[in-house]
Amino acid sequence: MLPLNATLAEPLSFSLAEKLLLVVLVAASAAGFWLRFRVVLGKILQSKKDSSFRLSPIGKRIWDFVWEVALQAKVIRQRPLPGLAHALVFWGFCAFVLVTLNHFAVGLGIGFLSPVGFFGRFYFDFAAVFALACAVGIFGLFVRRFLVRPKWLGQQLSYQSGFIAFLIFLLMVTYLASFFVADADPATRVLWWVHTLALLTFLPIIPHTKHLHLVLSPATVFLSHGSFSQIPPLAGDEDFGLIAGTDLTRLVSLQAFSCVECGRCTEHCPAANTGKLLNPKEIILGLRSYLNDLGPASEEPLLGKYNPQEAPFQCTTCGACEFQCPVGIEHLPILVGLRRGAVNTGAWEDDYGSKFFLALERGANAHGLPASERDKFIEKAGLPIFDGTQEFCLWLGCMGGYDPKGREIIADFARVMNYLGTSYGVLRKEKCCGDPVRRLGNDLVFQQLAESNLEVFEQSKVKKVVSICPHCVRTLQEDWKEYGTPPAIEHHSEFLARFANKLPHQQNQESIVYHDPCYLGRYRNVYKQPRTVVKLAGKLVEAPRNHERSFCCGAGGGLVFLGEETGERVGQVRAAELVATGATTVGTACPFCNSIFRDALAETGEAAPQLFDIAQLTARGLPKNDLS
Amino acid sequence: MKIIVAIKQVPERDAQIRIDAQAKWIEESGLQYALNESDAYALEEALQLKEKHGGEVVVLTAGPERVGPTIREALAKGADRAIHINCADLGARDALGVARLLAAAVKPENPDLVLTGLQSDDLGQGQTGVILAELLDLPHSSLILHVDKTDSGLTVKRELEEGWFKLIELPTPAVLTIQSGGNKLRYATLMGIKRAKAKEVRTVTAAELAVDAAPVVILERVALPQKQKSTQMIPGNPKEAAAALVEKLKFEARVL
Amino acid sequence: MSGIWVVIEERDGHVSRSSWEAVAAGQKLAALTGQAVNAVVIGAKTEGLAAEVATKALGKVVRIEHPLLAAYTADGFTLALQQFFAVEKPEYAVFPHTYQVRDYAPKLATRFGQALIGDVTAIADGPVFIRQLMQGRLNGSYRHTGNGPCFVSVQAGAFRADEAQAGAAPVSVFTPTIEPAQIRTKPGERFRGTAQTVDLGAAQRIVGVGRGIKDAANIPLAQELATALGAELGASRPICDNGWLPMERQIGSSGQTIAPRLYLALGISGAIQHLVGIKGSQCVVAVNKDPDAPIFEVADYGIVGDLMEVVPALTEAVKAAQQ
Q: What residues in B contact A353, CB-CB < 8 Å?
């Protein structure tokens, strides 16, 4: 029985030989750590400087650091049980800082925290609680890795992880056991030395394994996340993207070495979940292997040996990977960077891709249709032309302007705007916003489109834009900044939600399952507004994977303009999930999601749920005699 | 191989057509321009031949100042240098007149092969290459989908009507007009555009070439076609509608 | 300089339909200008061909014969006609606008310091020759102003072959002087493309099947129509997804892009991905039971009706028209 007033036992004294041995072992362990860590640090520092890195917004960085590192919020929230276990281990480590320092001081005869003093007693008891939690946590993680064996941790068992888990467990157990012995007991000395050896074995292993994240990830989280999916501008005439080691920046190298191989990115990746080659974890580890084998000064191509060229081109840029990563790795700029390297140099030879780029080189829209088709639609739908006096410019986009369903959505949204008395107009000339070429890494075409559109905006004196397409919203607001100053833009869900109290509340109780578009949810953090709009039209049903966990429809990243997918269709997987909720209607807020689900739901047959954009759901509630 | 590719900058395919004040041509203000489609295939064929057999690809174009970006696009795709015949009155010359300009620029270059696109997207005459061959006194073939270099010259694949093809052998130097669709086109890349800045563009004025410019054929006037494209819905029961449709397809659309 | 000479082209040993159309055009030009219209055939053995031509209302029919003209070459035909026209001094030379004519007529015209007015769709008083510009979106009126023959080629179908008036014309022979060294190109035998994989991209006629076909068992109906038309069978994405037709037959942005002269969309609603794949089609016919289907916006002809009834009726009508 553990008496409540038990204190931590410490060996009474150490001989000179023991002290010398301790010093030698500490030196050796530290040297072992530094020898490898120096190499890693070197590779990171020798990488290209990030020319566009800015420390601001510093507030956000500090907040992310506190939230994600100190509070382990992302680790826990996105994978609750293993996350909590890890958090306990982490907090245990944090709590143990003083304990560890004191432990070595004791070995040298200069212990500074007395186990029987007021603060010492409190602190060691406090640390004991954490030690217990940590031991439980690490044991749980061990069971998960070796007995449960989730596939995200990879096929091969990591004995290295098992050994580290054992060391951590040993550290906690030796600490806790020290409460059960007396100072004079020889067992105390044994415990002390076992604890010391475990620590000194652990230290040099850190930089050789994924446990490097212990040192790097706090820095990574702080230095990354300037914003979500931040694609850096190309740095000068010779920068075409991530082609070889020399293109890897310090931030990318830091991120590559920070990977803990947890597999959360891959777990949520739509491509990886449908049998594609792309595996976000392997992309990052591929970069790490490249840096280890060849270093940041190598001219060898990044794609090829460590990751096939095909893999990055299967990415829908949904952002689930970057969103999930607990150590601050930014997969999206890396994937787009790899694509840039292939596309900006012409190394990517894809039939559909080439045709797509050629169509946009010569034409105005992503479909390769004549611009007169858009003009015909504007005329037929009676949409007012923007003349500088209206409040909003309604951006049609390539789907709103040319796709039959997209046009229906625009027409219905226009009806709603008319009903609300909003003044708006559409531009005479619109070119594709450039989202697909931006995500595919074609900076040449993107620059042409962005600059051309920005000029039209300026000449037309556009101040505020509203769009039905999250891709357009994102691209206009963020990506066009590289070439000018875009006007303010919002998504139509944000617009409609603002007027929710003026819009009719439909009485029917039809169940509507709402699908969060990637570019509205994860990219823009807009979750509430579309739901507000859906609730005006019926009963909101959540898909199993919703909000920031929403599963991509598969159209993004320019993929909808390329050839057929291999393996299972991403859109079909998501459609099946939506259908399985039993809702009678699927509600979308993105014309691409709508287009994908249109085909996917059609295969469900006669019992398929209806498919409506939130604008259509709103419009059907308008009074019937409203001829606008 | 030294290959000269004659390219033309034409109004964008879906440009809005408005007749100009004199009704002699279309209103050019506000038009966007692009590389003529079959010329892009000609350029692609030339670049592939260069990649296989080495040599030089020179693009040649006649036109006003605005053809600059199209020249750069061709250089960006891989052409080595360009010759620009600065000519402000291209529209006033007939096919023979334009070919004379090009021939005057080609002659001193002594190329092994001259490629042109099959026809231009604006005038669509399809004659420049053939006339060029005659002016240079070189053998030629047209509607070519594929070019192979052989020991004795070239073997080319020519398209015939109704899905037939023919292989033709001819010696070099020669002139070929290239049909669209024979190759997969490469897209312009950022790297290509940046590298193009360092490539030579030699400008020569039409006057310097001193060719006979008097036209033998003139385009008097342009007009919009009477029938605008609109859907003809064919009424009647299935049998009636079917018969009416077949009649229209045969004599109106002339596709049967 | 006087006279109109129509240059006849041979197809499978007979006068080609486009040549009859050129004769009709020549006769119209004759009516406008008061000139006599004649015809010339070219080859190594032209007796049969000339006899066919001589059944039309023409002033003269001439056989330009030479062994080196057995196979078409630009050098050979140009040389032969150059020599012939140097003698006859025509005011007009009329050709059918075929691939072959496009290959040598401009060369021939250059020999006379002239330029061909090609692909003419109509001849008006003047004479003024109308041809299409900007891919058919503009018409241009051309006039010949040079001192020399006016070379003209006429678009297939612009003039009606059956309007070539009948008559009886005398036939004579002209033998040009051609040396083998003057023929610089060596043509091979014609051949078809390898038809191993389905290449909808090259097909001239295509019948597309969409969800309106309702059941895989109904596809043979569409196939019959395709066979009657000599067309390839294609499909919109859902049909291929269901496995009713193989993926190579998918028409759309992620499948094949087509550019046939005739495309029949059966039971296809017209989603953007499909429309993008068919926008190169010259003539689009849509059959759908929904009068509001977007496909009708881009179709040249439309029939609203039940596929099960319309498609067999079309098959019959097509077969009847081919008699």
A: 187
Q: Are the CB atoms for C45 and C64 separated by under 8 Å?
A: no
Whether A344 sits inside 8 A of B193 (CB atoms) is no
**Domain ranges, residue C25:** 4-182
pLDDT of B12 above 80: yes
For C264-304, write each residue's pLDDT tens digit: 999 998 888 888 889 888 899 999 998 888 899 889 999 99
ipTM of this model?
0.91
SS3 C94: strand
CATH of the domain at C132: 3.40.50.620
Clarify whether residues C128 and C41 are in a common domain.
yes
Cα B106 vs. chain centroid, distance in angstroms? 16
> ω into residue C127 within 30 of 0, thus cis?
yes
Contact A240 B190 (CB under 8 A): yes
Q: What is the pLDDT of residue A30?
A: 95
Backbone angles phi, psi at A519, to 5 degrees: -80, -10
Whether C222 is in a domain gets the answer yes
Q: How far is CA A581 from CA A273, A542, B131, in A?
A: 20, 8, 69
Percent pLDDT > 70 in chain A is 98
- Write down how long chain A is: 628
With CA atoms as reference, the chain C residue closest to A563 would be C254
Tell me whether residue C188 is in a domain. no
Rg (CA), chain A: 29
Domains and CATH numbers, chain B: 2-209 (3.40.50.620), 225-256 (no CATH)
Which of C182, C210, C227 delimits the end of a domain? C182
Q: Measure A443 CA to nearest chain B CA, in Å.
A: 7
Which pLDDT score is estimated for C242? 80
Share of chain A above pLDDT 90, in %: 70
3-state secondary structure of B201: strand
Instruction: List b or e across C90-110, with b for residues whose CB sees 16 or more CB atoms inside 10 angstroms.
Output: bbbbbbbbbbbbbbbbbbbbb
Q: Which residues of chain C have pLDDT under 70?
A: 194-197, 323
Name the average pLDDT for chain A: 92
Same domain, C238 and C171: no
Within A28-156, strands assigned E span none
In a domain, C195, yes or no: no
Chain C interface includes A124 (CB < 8 A): no
Confidence of residue A625 (pLDDT cuts 50, 70, 90): low
| Domain membership flag for residue C241 | yes
This prediction has a pTM of 0.88
Residues C264, C147 share a domain: no
The per-residue pLDDT for range A218-244, each reduced to its tens digit, is 999 999 867 899 999 999 889 999 999
Distance CA C24, CA C30 (A): 10
**What is the domain-level CATH number for residue C291?**
3.40.50.1220
Confirm if A360 and A432 have CB atoms less than 8 A apart: yes
Nearest Cα residue to C255 out of A564, A403, A369, A567: A564
Place of tokens 């940041």: A296
C301 CB near a chain B CB, below 8 Å? yes
What is the pLDDT of chain C when averaged over all its residues? 91
* Structure-token match 């169509």, residue found: A359
